């Protein structure tokens, strides 16, 4: 299990700290272990993933943690926001007797791995969300620690990380692609309603952008909507992959024919071509006549006098 993440030890670590802007990221550089190759310090940036307003520094002091020989400055509120972790418990107001800083005001953990703790620092700075460790590794090539090192630090500091967490962001990205794809199809339907088109057809191909037709009766020669293509094309590019995989296709069709159904007349059909190089998504009965004609102004009951 002692697999090296391919990270170096010779640089200063820059850990996230707060800024007055809710969307900016700030950092403070702290020295790492001295390297035989160079006595100068480099710096790297750990992105600040938080996006909400930070408390004022008067009531939310920086806590100086020296893990191994690396110092991390983390806001008190960040630590206490994770009460089930060791540091969250240690720095809660009810456990002030556990808070015994050194004469320099630092809390020292000399036997721990400061390199691996960079992941935990990012966890606290991101409201309890683990960074993508692999992306973190490539973004911070000066750190060096093994998976065992990381798991040991998580175990010691009681931070809930497992190897399965490595793949969470990938699944989140897939879910986001499905949601964006559904939103794009709904947008096509919305634009069809705006243009009083009862039929919308989308073709998903293997190596090309989707093609969209809006029409009153399914006549593809009548109109292809460049507005629709421009707006939703980036999100429709996943369509071929989703249509080709049976379970994804079933999930998407179920959402469109139940939760997102635009009218009682709505019919949805998916048709592949013979060599499986494209799929057509045909949607008809889009217009809800009751809603559509109910919006028309009422006609007078008697004929107007000539």
Automatic annotation (TrEMBL):
<dbReference type="Pfam" id="PF16017">
    <property type="entry name" value="BTB_3"/>
</dbReference>
<protein>
    <recommendedName>
        <fullName>BTBD10/KCTD20 BTB/POZ domain-containing protein</fullName>
    </recommendedName>
</protein>
<feature type="compositionally biased region" description="Low complexity">
    <location>
        <begin position="19"/>
        <end position="31"/>
    </location>
</feature>
<dbReference type="InterPro" id="IPR039885">
    <property type="entry name" value="BTBD10/KCTD20_BTB/POZ"/>
</dbReference>
<feature type="domain" description="BTBD10/KCTD20 BTB/POZ">
    <location>
        <begin position="63"/>
        <end position="167"/>
    </location>
</feature>
<feature type="region of interest" description="Disordered">
    <location>
        <begin position="1"/>
        <end position="31"/>
    </location>
</feature>
<dbReference type="InterPro" id="IPR011333">
    <property type="entry name" value="SKP1/BTB/POZ_sf"/>
</dbReference>
